[in-house]
Amino acid sequence: MRDGLEVRAGTNGHPTVLKAERVSKAFGPTQALADVSLELKKGSVHALLGGNGSGKSTLIKSIAGVEAADAGALEVRGERHDLRSMTPAQAREAGLHFVHQQRTTFPQLTVTENLAIGRGFDTGAGGRIDWRRARRRAAEVLERFQIDARPDQELGELGPATQTMVAIARALQDQADAADGVLLLDEPTASLPAPEVSLLLSALRRYANAGQAIVYVTHRLEEVFAVADWATLLRDGRVVGSVEPSQLDHDGLVELMMGRTVEQIERLRGRPEGSTVLAAKGVCAGPLSALDLDVREGEIVGIGGLIGSGRSTLLKALFGVMPLEAGEVRIDGEPRHIGSPPDAMAAGLAYVPEDRQADAAFPELTVSENLSLTVVPDYWHRGILNRRRERRDTLGLFDSFLITAESEGAPLRSLSGGNQQKVVLARWLRRRPRILLLDEPTQGVDVGARAEIYELVHSAVADGAAALVASSDFEELARVCDRVIVLRKGALVAELRDGDLSAEVIARHANAEIAA
Amino acid sequence: MTLRRPLRHYLEAYAFLALLIAAAVFFSVWPETSETFTSAANLRTLVSSNSVIAIVALGALVPLVCYEFDLSVGAIAGLSSVFVATALASGTAVPLAIAFGIGLGLFVGCVNALLITRVGVNAVIATLGISIILAGVVNQKTGGIAVTGDIPLGFSEFGSSNWLGVPKIAYVLALVAIAVYYLLDHTPYGRYLYAFGSNREAARLVGIRTKLTLGMTFVISAALCGAAGVLQVARAGSADPKVGETFTLPALAAAFLSAAAIKPGRYNVAGTLVAIFFLAVLNNGLNLAGSPEYVSNYVNGAALIVGVGLAVRLGRRQEV
């Protein structure tokens, strides 16, 4: 990912375009931001780093005027604004452009309409929309940002990655030639697969070199090394470091971010391989055509591939969420028919879906209820649901699964993203599954929680389970998996292990057409 | 924000109950109503007439926990009451008639469940359609005239007599409430319902059989409404073909309001009872004070909006 992105000019001498001073913001008893200052130079990419709940998004929202700060000032090209009374309109007038984390595009409208909503429609006589001009402009923008979409396409038809790129293009569309723009991006790469991440990053680098100033929120460290001139690190609402990334290494950044050293997860290579737990033959489902796969006891097998390659479909089909059109699945040698999640659970499978909010979290239910949903019948004895035992077990699970929560009765939504994900994982691991199916298990999770999640997976696997991990983060796959299979358009195109296993190789196989 | 969590929690949970008590106290001391409101006869009527609606509301509560609306609750109660009254008038034995009423509810509930889970009709539309059809069935059966045949004396006496000074119907309500509470709070099924209401797709992915779970809620709801219809016959000694329709909205309103009481943010049994009796006391008191009928419409509508609006706000504040 670092190749080709290293054209970084020194930016120390450049004039400052944006300066946030001593920004503070509290939500009830929680101090989301405490005296945070930030200086952005012209022509630079400035990464804003931090774990979940560190205040990154709050800072961006305060600058955008979306969330009123309790204190703080903003200086944009010499003009001062009070962040306590900043409005989105003022931010816009000051020349600040934002791409927020939440969806701000309209899936039912066309790409042209989505782009035009950001800048206003071109109108002809009588105030009618000049559609021809709007479409032409949209086509230009799509071309410029190398987005694979037609102006008349409904946005919802596009893949999630392309939709994110349209949102970014919308914020950037007028900036391409204005040399002194300021762009603030809140985790734009969270849902992008690796190749598109690097596409976007190189675009950002290009704009910065042309004179733009870019603030870029992320918790993916690789991206920081790849693209940022400067990094500000937040922890618990405070600035804990403001550094040039080249001065630090990966572990140094992690340490600053987490306030403690995070042990690098080492692959437990060379373990004696156990018996075959999962044997799938000729699996057809969605894009998958006649896929064969064996997974052994004690193995973590990664599934690499782009969006639409079938990596999520494979997990869904194995768990009975999507119909298996053809093929045979054997678990511990036994042929199994898996037509629904209960069938899959009975066969010893567990599934952590990709989209936690949509498919795994019960936000209003308590942490305890969230943890026990997979085992409720175990607490049902002689007509009584044994809540005391349930609560006691929950506290035990907090310990063994490294979950931090105010209490076992707190609603799940009150937990940070990383802790929510650990709850979802613990819900399954407590069943001691034979096979763990994990789809993007660390998406939207900070580095610390990420390491802990893989620690948990490792110990489950060490106890004799097997894990299948689908991810668009190829670095992560290369780091944690014993073996990675790469899917392209529903076919298995490579199987990598040991010396062959690296993010670059996975990426090369995942998009062979682009490389060729 | 300055309140500490436990205190705030109590305020949220019991504010509605406090309002109920405050309303009752108010009408007991307000000169306009102090004599009539506190009379034993008035209180018994208040309790027994609202016990029937409360059972209908507990029925509506079960699918509501899954965020599904059963708009046929009143129509099912009406259907059951008309058919049970006719059966009793033509000499059917009482236990058989009771089973018949509940059985009718079960049957309609199964139709609802199949329409919603197998055919895939939206629950609001399916139950609205069924309720209109049932209104037709009732009208065809009665010609729009109340069924007032020879209801066995023992049966109607049950509906109008007291035990230990409390209407017997209220004991039935207590039993039903305990049963629904047990179902929702102390069985795996109840846990699944709340999970389903929180996130349907996630519920499916943790292995909950969603169609069965959802379908059952409509069957349970309809069975309870069938039972409510039977009780209505016992209470009134006859069956008014129009009475069913009048149950639907107050019952749904109370089920909605339950999220504002006792367990804030969750539809629950105790909250439903508090809501039913809060609205009942308010209406009864205003009625006794001689206020015109439309005032109670204003009060009921406003209470629903304010109560549910408050519940939503409380829920949101907890998020921070």
Draw up the topology in text.
The complex is a heterodimer of chains A (516) and B (320).
Chain A: E1 16-27, E2 30-41, E3 45-50, H1 56-64, E4 71-76, E5 79-82, H2 88-93, E6 96-99, H3 111-119, H4 131-144, H5 160-172, E7 182-186, H6 194-209, E8 213-218, H7 221-227, E9 230-235, E10 238-243, H8 250-258, E11 276-285, E12 288-296, E13 300-304, H9 311-318, E14 326-331, E15 334-336, H10 341-346, E16 349-352, H11 356-359, H12 367-372, H13 376-379, E17 380-381, E18 384-385, H14 387-400, H15 417-429, E19 435-439, H16 447-462, E20 466-470, H17 474-480, E21 483-488, E22 491-497, H18 503-510, H19 512-515
Parallel strand pairs in A: 3-8, 3-9, 6-7, 7-8, 13-20, 13-21, 16-19, 19-20
Antiparallel strand pairs in A: 1-2, 1-4, 4-5, 9-10, 11-12, 11-14, 14-15, 17-18, 21-22
Chain B: H1 5-29, H2 34-37, H3 40-65, H4 73-89, H5 94-119, H6 123-142, H7 153-160, E1 162-163, E2 166-167, H8 168-186, H9 188-198, H10 200-205, H11 210-236, H12 243-257, H13 269-288, H14 293-319
Antiparallel strand pairs in B: 1-2
